[in-house]
Every structure is written in C-alpha cells, then in structure tokens.
C-alpha cells in the first residue's frame, strides 16, 4: 500500500447566506493516493467531529461524476486541476505530500451560498423550466424509428446533452455567465428534428431567463470550456447567440 | 391479511389492455380538483410527476437533491431494454417477458412482467420524441446492443450514460410542467413520514433540508418513487444520499415491505481500495459484451496479467457456461467471482478482484472501435484505479447495486394502504429475485410514464373531489411530532461514535452475512449483531450541528437509524427463505457445482412483511402472496 500524505487544507466556512464567511485551516496526515478528493473531505469531517468541531458542508451525491452535485473550486480552479474530471472523481494521486489546498464554493451572484461550500443553483432549473425541452406529452410520440437522424448529428447532440449542470462554467467565468450551460441544452435539442420546431422560442426564453437570474454575458474568455467536466465546447454559445439574434430580427 | 394482487384475469397479452378498458376514469375537469404528491424525481418519480401533470392533476414533487435532475437514475450506464426487434434477431414482447421472468428466477408476477415488456416499446418512442440522444446506426436509425441474460440485442443506449439521458428527458418534461403550473416543485425536501387518515394516505411530512423546518402537505394520493435501499450496505454503487427512509417510514405506518432479502450484487465494479472508501463505482455490464473475465489458474500467481499465457488463465465463465459465457446474468457472474476469490484465485492487493480483459477485442476490432464503445468507461476506470485498461486488464469485483425488494404493491402499483403508491426501485414488483441488466430504466419509466398515470385515476375516481381534512388534523400533528421527536432524540444522544462509523460497521455486518451468499448460522449471528449495534447507536452516536439549518450529518443520522431496522428485516427474510433463488443464495441449498436450487413447492411466494414494532428486536409479521404461473413453465435456470 502507498504511504500516507500530509495535506494542508484551507476551506471556506459560512453559516448562512447573509453572514460573512471566513477560511479555516486543518492539516490531515492520513491522505492516501487512492482516496477521492471528497473522501479526503469525509476524513476531515470525521476528525473534526471527533474533536467536537463542526464539519464542513459540501454538496455531493453520486460520486461518479454524473449527478453534478459537487462543484468545489480547488486552488482557484472549478473541480480542481484535472481536465474533464468532476471533483468527486479527482483522486489524491494528483497531489503530493505537503501540498496546500484551498477549497471554495463556486462564487456567483446567481448562486447564493447556503452554507460553507454549498450553494443554491436553482437558477439552472428555472432556465430549463422556460424552454429546455421538446414539448411532447407522454403518449403522443411517434414510432421511434420513424424519423431517421444522421448519426453524426445525433452523436454531436450527445456531446452537448452530457452536461451535468454542476455550475463549474459559472464559477470559472469572469462574468459568472451561464452561457455554456444554456447553450449546451439548446445545442443538444437543436440537433434533432424533434427539437427544431421550437428552436427560436426556446433560445429567446432561455437566454432571457439566464439574464433575469443575474448571470453575466459571455465575453469569449472560454474559461467555461476549460473547466467543464464533460468537455462541452463553447461552439454551443456561438450557436445560441446566432439563434437569439435571428429570433429577435425575424 | 389477504394479499390481492388485483392482476386481471384472461390471456397474458390481454391483461393490461383489458384492465385499461375497465379502469375508472377521472373526467378532465375533475382532474384539477385532485392533488397528488410524488416523492422522488428519478425515472419513476420524474416521469410520473410530468405525465400526471400533463393529464391535469395538481402534482407536488419532492426530492432530497438540490435539483430533480440529480436523482440517482442519472448514474445508470448501460441501457434500456425494449423488444422493438429492430435487429431482426427474433425478439418479441413474449421473449422479453420470458427472459425477465426467468432472469428473476420465477419469483415475480407474470401479469406485471408481461405488462412491463409490453409497455417498453412506448418508452423508446417517448424518449426519442423528447430528444434523448440514443446511439444510432449510420443509416440514422437506432442502434442496439446485447446485455446479460439475453440472447438477442434489445438494449438501447446512449454511450455509457443512458440513465443520465433518460432522466434528463423526464426532468425536462417535469420542468415544462413546473412552468405551466401543473407541478409545484420542492427540491431539498426530505419526506419523514406519510400521513394516514381513515386508512387512506392523505399527505406527508417533510423536512426542508436548508432551513430544517418540518412541513405538512395534504393530498389525495401519495406516490413514493424513492429508489432502493442498497446503501444499507454502506458501500454500494448507490449515490451517497440514496436511502430507504421514505419507504421504511411508510412501512412503519402499515405498508408491507416485500422480499427485502433480494439484493442484486453487480459483478463489474471497481474493487475496494481502503477504509476511507465512501462508495463503489460500477463499470457497465455492457463491458462483458467484449471483455473476458478470468483469474490465473495457479493460486498466488503474482505475474503481471499480460505475462500470463492463455493456457494458464481460467476463463471461468466461458468454461462453466459455454452458451452464455461472459454474458450470464448478474447473480451468476457475481457468485462465480466470489467462488474463485474464496478459492484463493483472486487478484490485486486484497485478492478480492478478478480480471476483465479487453486484449482480444482490441486485437480484433482495433483500439478506436473499442474506444468509441467504451471510451468514457475506460477513462473513468483509469482515473479511479490508476491503471490503463487499454494496456492491461481491468480489475473488478461485485458490489451491491440494486434492490429488487421494496414496498409491496398490487397490479395498480398501490401498496396495501389505499392511496399510497410505490413505483420504480422503491417497489418490489417486476424483477423477482434478480433483475436483468437494462431493466431498471425500463421499469422506472414504464411505471412513471404509462402505468401509474393510468392506474391512479382508477383510485382517485372513488375519492370525492375536493376532500380536505386540513393539515391541522390530528394525524398531521402526530406525524410531525414523531418526526420532530426523532430528530431531537438523535441530536441529544451526544455520544462518541460518528454516524459514518456506525453506518460502516452496520454495512460490514450486512455485506458479510446478507451479501452474495447467506446461511442460517451467519444470518442468526447477523440479527444479534445488528440489534446490539442498533442499541449502541441510540446511546452512543454523535450527531453534530443543529436542527434548524443545513446539516447533512443530521440527515444521514435519520437514514442510518432506518437502515438499522431494515437490516434486521433483511436478515429475517433471508432466514425465512430456505431456498436459493436469483440473487438469494442460501449455501444450504445449492448444487455441487454451486448453482442455486429453488424450492417452488414451498417458496413460490412473495414475502410481504408487516411492521409490528421495535423494542430491542424488530417485530414483523409475514404475509404471503402466492405466485401462480399460468403461462410459463418453471424450470431450473440454466445458462450453460
């Protein structure tokens, strides 16, 4: 078995949305290279509890990179240093003995802090609510193979549909824009004949809602693409803007 | 108590059609007078909430996650079955039905399983219409692949993320209804009790996981779509927040819990690496289409796997089961992995893993083809295990994955409590003693999109529209008080052991004794150990923080308390079932070759348990629903 590492942690504590937060520090001596980043935080919380201290709250669920619950900003990078890996699948073998790690919540006006590292991302739900779907009632679908879809288009749709809604794109963006999240849903649905019908209305509704929620606009920094755990391309944003402009002038 | 399945009479193919024709309907302008609560937003809950709101019911949807889109259905990798027979390989609804009932080792209802097979085709149509990006052929039509327990290719898939794509389809349909006002949506709410008035389910108590506030909700019917209880094992492939609390609290209010000992252990997971391990990661069963499972023939062979020549490799599934080979059902694959490891042939640092090798398929089809099929899974494996599966075999071991047991429901998916329904993994209904791969998504969506929206109307038609007792009714007050008392009790113990420590210890007892193989002695021992540990839990657990704000460990404490009771029932149920069937292998009842021996004469029933109290020991009364087989002949399963 591998040797234990010592890791110096500095993490954000904040009791609620309306009170100021601060950093706390703790050194762990039993970090193992096979641990996931979140398992290391579990170990931290066990130690804190045994000392009668309050554990640090963070969001997580599936711990296999697909539910999108976790969204820690690690040493300034959303989901940490590994490309296309959510922080639940980031393993401690990416760190070395003696490393210092700072952990923060994703910071954005549209993602108010609930507690410590947990934020409220319900704005994402509301963006989907206004149009992130094909309006088809249960039972009214036609035979699945009635409409062939080019394999390439369908595969491309999958790339955008793979978004896990974690919000790393927002955390990384200097404008705290949700353009990659919104654009990815639009680009996914646009690739299918079923999604084409509502294309224009969908773009307008979702983009307007995104602004309403207090997300910033896109200035092509492309930070979102760099941190996206699913590697979603910013070409989704270009497509979104074209559709939005087209809808406004038509 | 007489358990009536309410399965319609008549030929198998006619049952559902006939039932739909005969069920009562609620007129469109009356539907808006009914409130329906749906707890859980996975495939079963999300699809049901959306579909019922589309019909015009007022739906209130609750989930513990911060968004409905994160329900654990999202993690399903491999695919969804349907007998479309697009590959022209001889599939049919009958064959899907037959494979499913045989795969479940003849411990499920014919009527339910046939309906599932029948409805499956519509699910594919629905999902495609929503824009679910299923894999396609170059001609633009849908692609299929094969999965364990079947000799046809009937699995539809979206790379290794089929659950995610289907869930997002259901979630988006739900969000559309939120926008249209048909669904009132409450994420970060946990159900802590069901409220029963005059014998009918009339509402729930929830805890707002942000503010800690307990709230009362009234409705005309309550649907539990709250998933399975695999996390009783602590280590499982379930998401960390998956739990049995909603189902268990309903059980404590009188809902029968059926077949709790039927737990599926998935054969292809990444092995445990240490004590800090918080969950296990599954590698899709689809990998067994092309990967070959083996261990060295020689004990203690510590050569690098690539240096072990073919004749010194034991491809045990291919040798023992020549016709199904690596595609035997999950229970058979898991059991055989345990057998070879128990014999000392296991590999890796702990000796508790076997190889899943892609060398031959890479040689045959090329690395690119393999990467196109399994790329994301290979990457995931490398990321977690730190080894490259393109260059050396994966190491895998079985892990708890799915629970076939759950709340007892009739053909209408209603529990024995009128107005309380259970769908998806939360019920016991369709998979018998073992679920086939790609059938969980099928069942969740079948229940959610098509079955429940039809059957709930049949119930509501008899409930007077606009019946309201008010949330200040005594039943609401008492249910809320019960929930509050338990929270206070947990916070007041102020002991020395953490919740995770208790949960991990409980999980180990359950895994060691109620895991892949069970026997009388171990089960009896487990019951004692569970009772003792439970006693200690209530006197020595440490729950940090406060009740009036976000407190994840307080949430866990309540869930672990329920797992402690469920675990004892699982052991009781496993002890009672003196036969082997599907995933339930009793070591006393197996052939010399280690194959399960069923006892149809004495055990062809659903074991449905009624809660009677807990006082040191769990008190439960067993009720039996006899399973009758009119259409299939019961055979000893053979995959040889």
Give the gist of this structure.
The complex is a heterodimer of chains A (250) and B (640). Chain A has 250 residues and is α+β, with helices and mostly antiparallel strands.
Write the layout of secondary structure elements.
The complex is a heterodimer of chains A (250) and B (640).
Chain A: E1 5-13, E2 22-31, H1 37-50, E3 73-74, E4 77-78, E5 100-104, E6 113-115, E7 118-119, H2 122-129, H3 151-161, H4 168-172, H5 179-190, H6 193-196, H7 199-212, H8 223-227, H9 235-249
Parallel strand pairs in A: 1-5
Antiparallel strand pairs in A: 1-2, 3-4, 3-5, 6-7
Chain B: H1 15-22, H2 28-31, E1 35-39, H3 43-55, E2 58-62, E3 80-81, H4 93-103, H5 110-130, E4 145-146, E5 153-156, H6 162-180, E6 183-186, E7 189-197, E8 200-208, E9 214-218, E10 221-224, H7 245-252, E11 257-258, E12 263-269, E13 292-296, E14 313-314, H8 316-320, H9 330-342, E15 354-357, H10 359-365, H11 367-385, E16 394-403, E17 406-407, E18 420-422, H12 440-460, H13 474-493, E19 497-498, H14 499-514, E20 517-518, H15 520-540, E21 541-542, H16 552-576, E22 585-586, H17 600-603, E23 605-615, E24 617-626
Parallel strand pairs in B: 1-2, 1-10, 2-6, 10-18, 19-21, 20-22
Antiparallel strand pairs in B: 3-5, 4-5, 7-8, 8-9, 11-17, 11-23, 12-16, 13-14, 13-15, 15-16, 23-24
Helix pairs in contact in B: 3-6, 3-12, 4-5, 5-12, 10-11, 14-15, 14-16, 15-16
């Amino acid at each position: 078995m591998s040797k234990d590492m010592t890791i110096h942690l500095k993490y954000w504590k904040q009791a609620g949305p309306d009170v100021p937060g601060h950093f706390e520090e703790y050194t762990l001596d039993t970090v193992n290279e096979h641990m996931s980043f979140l398992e290391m935080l579990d170990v931290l919380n066990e130690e804190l509890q045994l000392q009668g201290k309050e554990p640090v709250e963070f969001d997580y669920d599936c711990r296999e990179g697909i539910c999108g619950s976790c969204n820690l900003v690690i040493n300034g990078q959303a989901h940490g240093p590994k490309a296309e890996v959510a922080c639940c699948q980031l393993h401690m073998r990416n760190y070395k003995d003696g490393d210092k790690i700072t952990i923060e919540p994703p910071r954005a006006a549209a993602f108010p802090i609930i507690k410590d590292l947990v934020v409220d991302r319900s704005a994402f739900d509301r963006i989907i609510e206004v149009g992130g779907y094909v309006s088809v009632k249960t039972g009214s679908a036609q035979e699945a193979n009635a409409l062939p879809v080019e394999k390439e288009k369908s595969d491309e749709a999958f790339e955008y549909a793979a978004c896990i809604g974690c919000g790393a794109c927002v955390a990384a963006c200097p404008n705290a824009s949700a353009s990659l999240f919104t654009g990815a849903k639009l680009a996914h649905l646009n690739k299918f004949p079923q999604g084409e019908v509502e294309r224009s209305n969908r773009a307008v509704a979702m983009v307007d809602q995104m602004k309403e929620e207090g997300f910033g606009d896109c200035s092509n920094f492309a930070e979102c693409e760099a941190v996206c755990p699913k590697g979603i391309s910013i070409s989704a944003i270009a497509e979104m803007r074209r559709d939005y402009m087209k809808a406004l002038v038509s | 108590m007489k358990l009536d399945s309410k399965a319609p009479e008549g030929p198998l193919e006619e049952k559902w059609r006939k039932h739909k024709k005969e069920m009562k309907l609620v007129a469109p302008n009356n539907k808006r007078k009914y409130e329906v609560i749906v707890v859980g937003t996975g495939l079963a809950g999300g699809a049901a909430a959306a579909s019922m709101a589309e019909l015009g019911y007022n739906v209130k949807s609750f989930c513990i996650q911060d968004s409905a889109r994160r329900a654990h259905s999202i993690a399903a990798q491999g695919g969804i079955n349907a007998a479309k027979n697009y590959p022209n390989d001889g599939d049919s609804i009958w064959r899907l039905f037959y494979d499913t009932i045989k795969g479940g080792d003849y411990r499920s209802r014919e009527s339910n399983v046939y309906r599932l097979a029948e409805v499956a085709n519509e699910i594919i149509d629905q999902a495609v219409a929503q824009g679910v990006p299923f894999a396609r052929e170059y001609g633009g039509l849908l692609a299929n692949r094969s999965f364990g327990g079947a000799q046809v290719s009937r699995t539809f898939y979206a790379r290794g993320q089929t659950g995610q794509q289907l869930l997002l389809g259901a979630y988006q349909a739900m969000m559309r209804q939120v926008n249209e006002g048909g669904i009132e949506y409450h994420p970060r709410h946990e159900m802590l009790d069901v409220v029963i008035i005059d014998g009918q389910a009339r509402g729930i108590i929830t805890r707002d996981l942000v503010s800690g506030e307990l709230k009362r909700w009234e409705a005309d019917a309550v649907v539990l779509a709250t998933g399975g209880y695999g996390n009783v094992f602590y280590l499982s492939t379930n998401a960390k927040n998956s739990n049995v609390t909603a189902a268990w609290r309903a059980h404590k209010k009188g809902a029968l819990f059926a077949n709790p000992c039927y737990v599926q252990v998935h054969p292809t997971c990444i092995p445990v690496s240490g004590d800090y391990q918080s969950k296990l990661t599954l590698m899709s069963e689809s990998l067994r289409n092309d990967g070959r499972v083996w261990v060295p023939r020689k004990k203690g062979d510590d050569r690098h796997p690539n240096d072990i020549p073919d004749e010194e490799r034991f491809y045990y599934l291919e040798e023992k089961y020549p016709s199904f080979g690596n595609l035997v059902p999950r229970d058979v694959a898991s059991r055989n992995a345990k057998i070879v490891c128990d014999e000392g042939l296991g590999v890796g640092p702990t000796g508790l893993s076997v190889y899943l090798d892609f060398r031959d398929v890479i040689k045959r089809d090329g690395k690119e083809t393999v990467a196109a099929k399994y790329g994301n899974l290979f990457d995931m494996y490398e990321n977690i295990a730190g080894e490259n599966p393109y260059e050396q075999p994966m190491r895998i071991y079985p892990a708890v994955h799915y629970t076939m047991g759950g709340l007892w429901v009739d053909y209408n998916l209603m529990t024995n409590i009128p107005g309380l329904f259970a769908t998806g993994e939360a019920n016991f209904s369709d998979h018998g003693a073992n679920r086939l791969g790609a059938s969980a998504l099928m069942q969740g969506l079948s229940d959610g999109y098509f079955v429940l929206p039809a059957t709930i109307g049949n119930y509501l038609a008899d409930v007077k529209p606009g019946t309201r007792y008010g949330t200040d009714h005594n039943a609401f007050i008492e249910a809320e008080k019960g929930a509050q008392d338990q929270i206070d009790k947990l916070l007041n113990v102020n002991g020395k052991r953490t919740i995770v420590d208790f949960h991990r210890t409980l999980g180990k007892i359950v895994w060691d004794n109620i895991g892949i193989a069970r026997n009388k002695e171990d089960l009896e021992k487990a019951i004692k150990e569970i009772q003792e540990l439970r006693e200690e839990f209530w006197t020595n657990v440490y729950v940090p923080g406060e009740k009036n704000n976000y407190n994840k460990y307080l949430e866990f404490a309540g869930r672990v308390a329920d797992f402690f009771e469920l675990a004892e029932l699982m052991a009781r149920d496993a002890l009672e079932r003196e036969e082997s069937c599907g995933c339930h292998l009793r070591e006393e009842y197996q052939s010399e070759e280690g194959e399960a021996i069923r006892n149809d004469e004495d055990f062809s029933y659903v074991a449905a348990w009624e809660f009677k109290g807990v006082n040191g020991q769990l008190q439960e009364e067993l009720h039996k629903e006899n399973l009758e087989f009119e259409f299939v002949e019961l055979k000893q399963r053979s995959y040889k």
